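Sanity check. The docking grid for adenosine-5'-diphosphate depends on where the pocket ends up, so I'm generating a full predicted complex first rather than guessing from homology. Inputs follow.
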Amino acid sequence: MNHPGTGSNWLQVSGLVLAALAAGVFTGQYFLFLFLLAAAMLGWHLRQLKRLKDHLRSGKPLPNRNGSGPWQEVYGQIRNLQTGNRKRKRRLSRFVKRFREAVTALPDAVVILGREKDIEWCNPATSSLLALHWPECADKRITTLFKDPVLIEYLQTGQYSKPLRLISPAEKSRVLSIRLTPFGKKKRQYLLMARDITRIYHLDQARRDFVANVSHELRTPLTVISGFLETLSDAEEDCPDLALSRGLMQQQAQRMTDIISDLLVLSRLEMDERTDMKDPVPVPGLLVTIIKEADALTRSSGHVIELDADEKLWLLGNSHELHSAFSNLIFNAIQHTPNRSEVRISWKADGSGARFCVSDTGEGIAARHIPRLTERFYRVDKGRSRSSGGTGLGLAIVKHIINHHDAELKIESEPGRGSTFCCHFPAARTSPPVAIPQEPVARE
Ligand code: ADP
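Predicted complex below; grid placement will be based on this.
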């Protein structure tokens, strides 16, 4: 592309060459004059180059009028670049300033950590929530500034998919939700955010206590009512109408008992937030036990249960909870499948851990219901669930237990074709069979 001035530069150079040639014609010394011209031009360009270098080195913007000949254009282009850069820099620093002001005003604590989890920057809220004071904590490793072993372990593990809930290191009455998010190139920097969830925590606690207390309080009167209903059976001979009403009352009392017992199980699961239960659990043996328990149901319904379990695959967790989760899924499959159908249970290792699956060929579930199945009392068909004795709490219990075991519940289903409920456990939760010490049996 030709820039303005390029033509006149060529004219100037041509004029000078012609003048040198003319001088050569007069003196007969062509090469001398051409050489002198070339040397003078080279010298002049080198001087211009040096001036430009000095200007650039000084870091100052180039003066408006500078350079002559072709250098005028070079100066002009550099000036344009400098002006553009200055504008971009101003825009960027305005943005950074506003961003900092916004993060500074946040009520949540924000800490930016480097590769070694050293503190690069933090906002003022870190002082009241995490007891980290800026700039005193600058460049210090965050793990050396906390005493809580749970928090230190969370920061070191590299497992940041779930937030951590803990008491504020700055004020014992505050409850925080802490989350570490890797960011930047190769995700080697970290953003730590701590949120004050004291109010939500207490509300949640009050809700849990309320459900647990109500369930507990209802259990005693219900046991009394059930007891009286039992004794009423003696009077049925004198009053035949009583048999029907007593049967219905007993059925409803049983339903309430089941709901209360499931609510209490849920409360216990919610209150016990330990995810560190790591007893070796012989899953294949546990599944055989559950199938035996289901025998009473399947004997009359004719369901066929197929078990395909890896005998050498155990889990690290809580045997009682796992029994409850697996049996809920197996009993659901039996309940939602026509008599004499097949229910398949599998327990296998996969590339990233272990998988427990229950597949049935029953009624199936429409896709829109699947995300809500683990909500309390959510049923696809309310009437059917109630008549089959379902409490609507089974899958909510399963979800809690699965969370306690760092596992994931996956549901695949097609209406009219059946469903598959799978629990995927991470590799860290699997184990080969181990010898479990037997409890000593007391001798008579
Ligand atoms: P319920 O006590 O009613 O079985 P759950 O929480 O165990 O409560 O299940 C919630 C709902 O999910 C059930 O009411 C039912 O509609 C649906 N469901 C669960 N398992 C299956 C299954 N294997 N096939 C079809 N529907 C199912």
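Relevant for the grid: The radius of gyration is 40 Å.
Also worth noting: The first helix runs from residue 6 to 27.
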